[in-house]
Amino acid sequence: MAHAAPGPRTVSRRPGTIRVFSDRTRSVAKLAVPVVLGLVYGYWAAANARYGGPITGWNLLFGFLTALVFAVLCAALLNIAPKLRREVHAVLWAAFSGIAIGFLVNQSHTSVLRSTVLGLATAAAVFAFLFYRYYTHEDAKGHRIE
């Protein structure tokens, strides 16, 4: 007897919420999003590092290594951070964002002071936004409140 393929789930594990994507789509996205963001970030860092000069093998290697590090750290944060308390969750994403922006600015041959200030400003803005979001949407243990 033939069985129909299961469709996307419409109800999540938490009562009262609706899931738009299936479990398979969510698991593919957990891998694809960091890879795509990493490739964009690596290209951006390599473009900043060459500063309008020719593309060389070292520049390509730098871009791919930067993309790899970014993608691995992003994937790790996507898996680990939601399991932590909201304060630590927000701090981790703020640190990741601030370091990423500071590194990009530093690759564009500007002063270390400028890259530090922009990285810290980005980290502060990301922390303020995410802490507010987690504080208003989760309880102290990290469970979503409706």
In short:
With 146 residues, the protein is mostly helical.
Provide an overview of this structure:
- The chain is mainly α.
- It contains four helices and no strands.
- The chain has helices at 23-50, 57-80, 86-107, 112-137.
- It is flat and about 55 Å long.
The largest sheet is: none
Uncertain spans: none
Strand and helix order: HHHH
Distance between the termini: 42 Å
Helix content: 55-70%
Which structural class fits the helix and strand makeup?
Answer: mainly alpha
Query: What share of the residues does DSSP label as strand, in percent?
Result: under 5%
Principal-axis shape equals: flat
The number of helical runs is 4
| Average residue-wise pLDDT | 85
Number of strands: 0
Task: Return Rg in Å.
Answer: 19 Å
Task: Sum up the structure in keywords.
146 residues; 0% strand; mainly alpha; 68% helix; single chain; 4 helices
How would you summarize the topology of this molecule?
Elements lengths: L22 H28 L6 H24 L5 H22 L4 H26 L9
